[in-house]
Design goal:
The termini are far apart. Strands 1, 2, 3, 4, 5 and 11 form a six-stranded mixed beta sheet that branches. Strands 8-7-9-6-10 form a five-stranded mixed beta sheet. It is elongated. It is an alpha/beta fold and about 300 residues long. The chain has three domains: about 100 residues, Periplasmic binding protein-like II (D-Maltodextrin-Binding Protein, domain 2, 3-Layer(aba) Sandwich), CATH 3.40.190.10; about 80 residues, D-Maltodextrin-Binding Protein, domain 2; about 110 residues, Alpha-Beta Plaits. It contains ten helices and 15 strands. A hairpin with a 3-residue loop joins strand 3 and strand 4.
Length: about 300
């Protein structure tokens, strides 16, 4: 197997990838950004890609939500959760917080350490980096001009960087969710604790359009664990919805919800049913059980035989 991931080496994304069985013995291809990682899968250069999709503090990762919702279709086959903690790594010769005037890191990392930065290095400005590891590695480049980086302890240790502060995240216990993406193929078997991810475009902007979509889940007893709106890029007011639901395509209630959604949104995108990294089996009322759906379908079929 060849795995692409949001690089460079030492990112939280690589830490997520290393939780996949066999990934530590496989070829790992660091990518400069999420689009490049996913394009490596689409082109066949990589068999799968690990990318971040959601953070417990900042919510959805827009770059991933947009990249996976457009272009050649892809499929999510696994999710991985990684606890997130940051250190303040600095250039050689930097020994005091007052010497720091520019910090480089990923936008989500900066957002998760913003309060600490305001209280401890208020004079510092933020310089975006493609990843936390990229910002840290810039400390070793004389052509870069930032004095510090917010990065993982692993990156700082691997690059032998000086660390002025540890545990600088504003929210202890923050977690980032990563997804393993492949080209469309076999869907993992249901485990009882699963997720299904969909992209739902609004075909027309009218009162009740979103309600019509949500009713398809409500009527079948399907719970949403995440719903986010993202612009389509076609103009102001044009949005699609990225949705995670509790359940698997193999379950009758989920399949029935997708059937109803397809009537409303024929261009909806199924991104996969896969094991949830944590959680518990959803509580399903008896009238939304597989047995109830099968019996109802058989009853209607018996009536239609009389036509």
């Amino acid at each position: 197997m060849k795995y692409a991931y949001l690089g460079p080496a030492g990112t939280f994304t690589e830490a997520a990838l290393l939780q996949v069985p066999g990934a530590d013995q496989s070829e790992r291809l660091p990518a400069a950004n999420v689009n490049a990682a996913l394009d490596a899968v689409r082109s066949g250069e990589a068999d799968a890609a690990m990318v971040p999709i959601e953070n417990s503090v900042e919510g959805g990762v827009s770059a991933t939500l947009d990249a996976i919702s457009r272009g050649q279709r892809l499929q999510i086959v696994r999710e991985v959760l990684v606890p997130i903690t940051f250190v303040l790594a600095v250039r050689p010769g930097i020994t005091a917080l007052e010497q720091i005037h520019k910090v480089s890191t990923h936008g989500h990392a900066w957002a998760q350490c913003r309060i600490w930065a305001q209280e401890n290095i208020p004079q510092a400005v933020f310089e975006p980096a493609s990843s936390t590891a990229a910002g840290a590695m810039g400390l070793l480049d004389d052509e870069q001009h930032h004095q510090a980086a917010f990065c993982s302890p692993l990156v700082a240790a691997e690059r032998n960087l000086s660390v002025l502060a540890e545990g600088i995240e504003d929210n202890a216990g923050a977690v980032t969710r990563f997804i393993l993406v492949t080209r469309p193929g076999e869907i993992p078997e249901p485990t009882g604790v699963d997720k299904t991810t969909l992209v739902l475009p609004l075909t027309e902007d009218r009162p009740g359009a979103l309600m019509g979509i949500l009713e398809q889940f409500t009527a079948r007893g399907v719970n949403l664990s995440r719903i986010e709106s993202r612009p389509t890029g076609a103009g102001l007011g044009r949005y699609y919805f990225s949705v995670d639901v509790e359940g698997h395509l193999a379950e009758e209630r989920v399949a029935a919800a997708l059937t109803g959604l397809h009537r409303l949104c024929p261009s909806l995108r199924f991104l996969g049913s896969y094991p949830a990294a944590e959680g518990q089996a959803p509580s399903v009322d008896s009238h939304n059980s597989d047995t109830a759906f099968v019996q109802a379908r058989d009853w209607v079929a018996s009536l239609r035989e009389r036509l």
